[in-house]
């Protein structure tokens, strides 16, 4: 029970041993000396809280906020000593703020729990008690034998025991782990591979010993001991025997494996970064401002306390006749009296710290986040997915991004390759309707028939269809037993049931293309490869496979042809093939390859070499000697490969397009114009990554590409970095791009961080390839913690991206094809990369300007509120008498001034959304937290003090110097002159203040809706109505009623009305003049865009119509949209034209300019709304 509680609280002790022993099928030793090891269960946890730690953990996080902690202290002080105001004035707002925030964060974490439960509750099959039992994923234990079927993901880290194949192998893809889509082959040991039935597995006696969990995806050390006929057989285990959680089974009907790492101990989970509380730059600025205001508060409290004792130095003021001290007060310690008075003043002025700021910010973030989900421009119709918000705390951070770190596979690309063109013997060809046609020839030309392909073309197609490592799956579930032989399909050749699996997407695309053209690879078994050439079957014997490696950048096969000859087919990068070619159209092919590359196509060059029997004997001898060498095997193999792959006959080149996601290039260009640097972090190969970067516009053809690749030592890496830094300074090139691989990056980050960062910051684009998941997070952290402290954003779609998503200031998950791990652990989720442009340039821009104004305005109105209270102490001998009634103190921030700023922070638009998209440079205006700079903060603070002085002294001067301390606030008529009491004076100051601060936010509003009018004028009206009722009725539950009839008498005075109007005009007129002058003399880019904006009223759309109509106006929130449109007056009840398909069926058009399309206005007003 104690261990379970420690697990729930996150304090489970670590493993005691360096290794773990796993008994297959949990068949433990029967002797009494065995002590079972304790392992984690198979639950995946991405949430922050549990039922047990929610209250303490959430309270700790909330009271880390300075304002919350401060008001807790004030509340405790009010409970302990006699203070001028009631503890309720501090305690009630604090309780409200804490409760609302806890509910919001609890709800968001509940959504994470819900997503986790979907994964943990997924059905799986395990072998227990001699049968196959279905259970939930979370119930899998270490040692369980798990069955996984084709196309399913592995629910735990498994050691492969057997598969449906006789050799015990299986094929998997790890795209969701490392971004690689190639097919990987994994093996089982011979002793377990024969156990293909449940009964055989139940009888299996085996023990797995392996290392404790570690994050490295490519490292696994262990051994398996199988007991057969009383004899122990020990076999080594490596990464090729381990099936990782999150990987997917391919081209194999089913496998059985034993669970070795479960839940949060699986390698996928260990590559997750620990979830931490992300805090936005705005929140950090708020805390800084709060500290400044806390200093102001302490200064005012200390000054008031000192001045009080300075006044009391005179005997007549120390103990006046109307306030005689008790004997206890006379004998009390002066120090205690000083502290007590200081605390009393602290409580009196404490409202200068705006606690309601936090709850308003929380409400603004929570309600504002719905606009992202409602935005039709962020809705993907094909997959029926809309944008979702997992954490609304970071909305404004979307407007501050300086670096974007993006994955490649599945994020920038669709991960689909398509054959486009090829060059054969110096002639360019393209595929048209399954035919290979020379350039310029059409499909209906008589020469377009495949029958007219001559020997060179056929040889090229054969080379492409044989030089690969592609495997085939015949997807026919109800085939007879003998049909498992791939060659059984040849006679009745049916391509409909054939599915290719390749080590790279390029190979798959090329083999599929040759099949369409007429040369189809139909399978391989053992050493035999078979192709169908225009209906004729040909069998080739595979003699040797020369695997691809990064140094050679090519791969080859040596085959025995059906006629008995020996031929080498090779393909690779042009730089790896053309220098070794001695015949063929070399120059023409080189020219064609350059043309293909300029189109953004991925190119491969194909060549061959024919061997005589004597030459092949020499080749075979060299290869066999190199492969059996015990010393320097890699070097000898390299020498053998170089000897074989020379004197090549050039056949041609291929051009394959890696299909990018829609509008990726435009999105990256928009981000670049907005001043955002884009880094691509991928686990893919160097050549593939560079090709995609060029095709998506991340790298430009005119960009100077620098490389930091294959560095083997610290010194070598440092020297290369220095060379790159010198080259950047010396080269007169506007833009540089940097390519770095994972191994070189590790060296660079070890001791040369500063030098590496210097090179990176001078590059417009950076590409990091062959990156492990935790390396991605390290790169993000490197930028995040650099001296400039830039705001970072990470976007990806797979489990391999989770670490960088959690490390970045803002993490965005792509709802792609590689599972939901990235989406579950992200702050925001979108369906396509192109949606990132609007998410940042429009939503981010709006959220930031709204919340920046909200924060500044809150400090301003609280300075206006409490400064007259401080000034009033000079007129009441620092007796701690309050200027305002306690009800006004409590309701000022909660009721009288809260709604105008909340509505402003939800619907304000400085510029129209389509202008923000068409002019990405406007994003630069708000970078570096510019609207919350110290200069802006100082302006709002000084403005607040100025207005407060005008409120107080304006009321004092205009109402005469007859203010007396009459507690009931009645008007005495003596010599026909009005004499106001302190409550009447305080009410006058409070009335002027409420009107002024409300009109101030009205002046800041650029986009007016009916809601703005309602809350602006409604707040002022509510204050007057409330004050009339509060002061006009005797309330029996109130102990004192100082405000009785005060407000009515005040409004009955003409001079009071005159004072209110004059003071409001004096306060606001300088602000109006300043805005007009600055707009005409020094307009910002945003203000220029405001002036140039003109939107035809006929094209105006209501917010709810735009946000809620998904398909032909039908959606889950269409009823809500209709209701809100009726409330806002855009549609009359029962009108049929509110959601007609003519206005709601809006989609992307290829002819549209990317940035001009905007269907989400994000306000409750049509575009033709009044503008300030």
From TrEMBL:
Cleaved signal peptide residues: none
Cellular component GO terms held in the UniProt record: early endosome; endoplasmic reticulum; Golgi apparatus; plasma membrane; recycling endosome; recycling endosome membrane
Pfam families with a match to the protein in the record: Cation_ATPase, E1-E2_ATPase, PhoLip_ATPase_C, PhoLip_ATPase_N
Membrane-crossing residue ranges in chain numbering: 66-81, 288-311, 342-361, 937-959, 979-1002, 1014-1038, 1044-1069
Domain of life: Eukaryota
GO molecular function, one term: ATP hydrolysis activity
Binding site for ATP: 407-409, 507, 548, 571, 602, 682-684, 770, 776, 800-801
Keywords: ATP-binding, Endoplasmic reticulum, Endosome, Golgi apparatus, Lipid transport, Magnesium, Membrane, Metal-binding, Nucleotide-binding, Translocase, Transmembrane, Transmembrane helix, Transport
Cofactor(s) it depends on: Mg(2+)
Coiled-coil region: none
One GO BP: phospholipid translocation
P-type ATPase N-terminal domain span: 36-90
InterPro entries reported in the protein's UniProt record: ATPase_P-typ_cyto_dom_N, ATPase_P-typ_P_site, ATPase_P-typ_TM_dom_sf, ATPase_P-typ_transduc_dom_A_sf, ATPase_P-type_domA, HAD-like_sf, HAD_sf, P-type_ATPase_IV
UniProt keyword ATP-binding, yes or no: yes
Subcellular location: Early endosome; Endoplasmic reticulum; Golgi apparatus, trans-Golgi network; Membrane
The EC number(s) this enzyme carries: 7.6.2.1
UniProt-annotated binding residues for Mg(2+): 407, 409, 797, 801
Membrane topology category: Multi-pass membrane protein
Enzyme kind, highest EC tier: translocase
Domain P-type ATPase A: 124-184
Alphabetical list of NCBIfam families matching this protein: ATPase-Plipid, ATPase_P-type
Oligomeric form and interacting partners: Component of a P4-ATPase flippase complex which consists of a catalytic alpha subunit ATP11B and an accessory beta subunit TMEM30A.
Family membership: Belongs to the cation transport ATPase (P-type) (TC 3.A.3) family. Type IV subfamily.
Cited function: Catalytic component of a P4-ATPase flippase complex which catalyzes the hydrolysis of ATP coupled to the transport of aminophospholipids, phosphatidylserines (PS) and phosphatidylethanolamines (PE), from the outer to the inner leaflet of intracellular membranes. May contribute to the maintenance of membrane lipid asymmetry in endosome compartment.
Designated name of the protein: Phospholipid-transporting ATPase
Originating species: Oryzias latipes
Classification of source organism: Eukaryota, Metazoa, Chordata, Craniata, Vertebrata
Gene that this polypeptide is encoded by: ATP11B
């Amino acid at each position: 029970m104690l261990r379970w509680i420690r697990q729930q609280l996150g304090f489970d002790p670590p493993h005691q041993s360096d290794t773990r022993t796993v008994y297959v099928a949990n068949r433990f030793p029967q002797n009494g000396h065995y002590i079972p090891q304790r392992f984690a269960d198979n639950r995946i946890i991405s949430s922050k809280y549990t039922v047990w730690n929610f209250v303490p953990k959430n309270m700790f996080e909330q009271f880390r906020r300075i304002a919350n902690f401060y008001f807790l202290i004030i509340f405790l002080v009010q409970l302990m000593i006699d203070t001028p105001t009631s503890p309720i004035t501090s305690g009630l707002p604090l309780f409200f703020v804490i409760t609302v925030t806890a509910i919001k964060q609890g709800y968001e974490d509940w959504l994470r729990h819900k997503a986790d439960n979907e994964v943990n509750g997924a059905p799986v099959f395990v072998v227990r008690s001699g049968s196959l039992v279905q259970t939930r994923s979370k119930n899998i234990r270490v040692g369980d034998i798990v069955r996984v079927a084709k196309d399913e993901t592995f629910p735990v880290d498994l050691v492969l025991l057997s598969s449906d194949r006789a050799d015990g192998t299986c094929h998997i893809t790890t795209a969701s782990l490392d971004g690689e889509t190639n097919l990987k082959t994994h093996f089982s040991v011979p002793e377990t591979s024969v156990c293909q039935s449940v009964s055989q597995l139940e009888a299996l006696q085996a023990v797995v010993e392996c290392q404790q969990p570690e994050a490295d995806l490519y490292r696994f050390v262990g051994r398996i001991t199988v007991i057969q006929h009383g004899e122990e057989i020990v076999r080594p285990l490596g990464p090729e025997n381990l099936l990782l959680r999150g990987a997917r089974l391919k081209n194999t009907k089913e496998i059985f494996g034993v669970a070795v790492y479960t839940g949060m101990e699986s390698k996928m989970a260990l590559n997750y970064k620990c979830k931490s509380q992300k805090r936005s730059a705005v929140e950090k600025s708020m805390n800084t401002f709060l500290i400044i205001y806390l200093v102001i508060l302490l200064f005012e409290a200390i000054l008031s306390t000192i001045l009080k004792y300075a006044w009391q130095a005179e005997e007549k003021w120390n103990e006046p006749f109307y306030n005689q001290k008790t004997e206890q007060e006379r004998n009390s310690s002066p120090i205690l009296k000083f502290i007590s008075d200081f605390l009393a003043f602290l409580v009196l002025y404490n409202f200068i710290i705006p606690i309601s700021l936090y709850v308003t910010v929380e409400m603004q973030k929570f309600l504002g986040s719905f606009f992202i989900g409602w935005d039709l421009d962020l809705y993907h119709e094909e997959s029926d997915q809309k944008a979702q918000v997992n954490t609304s705390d970071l909305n404004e951070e979307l407007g501050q991004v300086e670096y974007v770190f993006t994955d490649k596979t599945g994020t920038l690309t669709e991960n689909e390759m398509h054959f486009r063109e090829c060059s054969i013997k110096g002639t360019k060809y393209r595929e048209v309707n399954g035919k290979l046609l020379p350039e310029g020839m059409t499909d209906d030309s008589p020469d377009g028939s495949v029958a007219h392909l001559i020997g060179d073309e056929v040889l090229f197609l054969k080379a492409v269809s044989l030089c690969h490592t592609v495997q085939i799956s015949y997807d026919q579930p109800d085939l007879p037993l003998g049909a498992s032989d791939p060659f059984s399909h040849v006679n009745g050749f049916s391509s409909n049931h054939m599915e290719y699996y390749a080590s790279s997407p390029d190979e798959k695309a090329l083999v599929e293309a040759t099949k369409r053209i007429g040369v189809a690879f139909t399978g391989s078994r053992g050493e035999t490869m078979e192709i169908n050439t225009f209906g004729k079957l040909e069998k080739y014997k595979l003699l040797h496979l020369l695997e691809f490696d990064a140094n050679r950048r090519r791969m080859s096969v040596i085959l025995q042809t059906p006629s008995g000859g020996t031929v080498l087919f090779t393909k690779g990068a042009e730089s790896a093939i053309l220098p070794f070619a001695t015949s063929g159209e070399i120059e023409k092919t080189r020219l064609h390859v350059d043309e293909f590359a300029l189109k953004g196509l991925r190119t491969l060059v194909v060549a061959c070499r024919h061997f005589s029997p004597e030459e092949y004997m020499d080749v075979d001898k060299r290869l066999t000697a190199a492969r059996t060498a015990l010393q320097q095997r890699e070097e000898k193999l390299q020498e053998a490969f170089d000897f074989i792959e020379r004197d090549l006959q050039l056949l041609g080149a291929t051009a394959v397009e890696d299909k990018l996601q829609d509008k990726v290039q435009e999105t990256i260009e928009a981000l670049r114009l907005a001043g955002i640097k884009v880094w691509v972090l991928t686990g893919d190969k160097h050549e593939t990554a560079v090709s995609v970067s060029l095709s998506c516009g991340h790298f430009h053809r005119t960009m100077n590409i620098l490389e930091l690749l294959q560095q083997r030592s610290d010194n070598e890496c440092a020297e290369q970095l220095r060379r790159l830094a010198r080259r950047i300074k010396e080269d007169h090139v506007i833009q540089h791009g940097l390519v770095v691989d994972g191994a070189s990056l590790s060296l660079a980050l070890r001791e040369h961080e500063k030098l590496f960062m210097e090179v990176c910051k001078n590059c417009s684009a950076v590409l990091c390839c062959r990156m492990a998941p935790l390396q991605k997070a390290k790169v993000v952290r490197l930028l995040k913690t650099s001296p400039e402290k830039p705001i970072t954003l990470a976007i990806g779609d797979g489990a391999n991206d989770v670490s960088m998503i959690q490390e970045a200031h803002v993490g965005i998950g792509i709802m792609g094809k590689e599972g939901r791990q990235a989406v579950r652990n992200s702050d925001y989720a979108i369906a396509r990369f192109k949606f990132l442009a609007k998410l940042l340039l429009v939503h981010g821009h709006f959220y930031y300007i709204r919340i920046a104004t909200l924060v500044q305005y809150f400090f301003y109105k609280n300075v206006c509120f409490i400064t007259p209270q401080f000034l009033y102490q000079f007129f009441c001998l620092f007796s701690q008498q309050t200027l305002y009634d306690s009800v006004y103190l409590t309701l000022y921030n909660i009721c009288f001034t809260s709604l105008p700023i909340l509505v402003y922070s939800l619907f304000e638009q400085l510029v129209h959304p389509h202008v923000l998209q068409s002019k990405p440079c406007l994003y630069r205006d708000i970078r570096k937290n510019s609207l919350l700079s110290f200069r802006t903060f100082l302006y709002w603070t000084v403005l607040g003090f100025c207005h407060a002085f005008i409120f107080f002294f304006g009321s004092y001067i205009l109402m005469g110097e007859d203010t007396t301390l009459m507690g009931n606030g009645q008007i005495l008529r003596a010599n026909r002159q009005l004499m106001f009491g302190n409550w009447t004076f305080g009410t006058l100051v409070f009335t002027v203040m409420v009107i002024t601060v409300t009109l101030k936010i009205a002046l800041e509003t650029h986009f007016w809706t009916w809601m703005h009018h309602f809350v602006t004028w409604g707040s002022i009206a509510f204050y007057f109505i409330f004050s009339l009722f509060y002061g006009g009725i005797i309330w029996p539950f109130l102990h004192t009623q100082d405000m009785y009839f005060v407000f009515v008498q005040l409004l009955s005075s003409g001079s009071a009305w005159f004072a209110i109007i004059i003071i409001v005009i004096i306060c606001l007129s300088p602000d109006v003049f300043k805005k007009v002058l600055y707009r005409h003399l020094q307009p910002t880019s945003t203000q220029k865009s405001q002036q140039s904006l003109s939107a035809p009223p006929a094209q105006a759309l209501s917010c709810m119509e735009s946000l809620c109509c998904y398909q032909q106006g039908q959606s889950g929130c269409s009823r809500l949209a209709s209701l809100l449109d009726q409330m806002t007056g855009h549609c009359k009840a029962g009108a049929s034209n509110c959601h007609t398909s003519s206005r709601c069926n809006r989609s992307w058009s290829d002819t549209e300019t990317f940035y001009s399309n905007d269907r989400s206005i994000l306000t409750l007003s049509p575009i033709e709304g009044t503008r300030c």
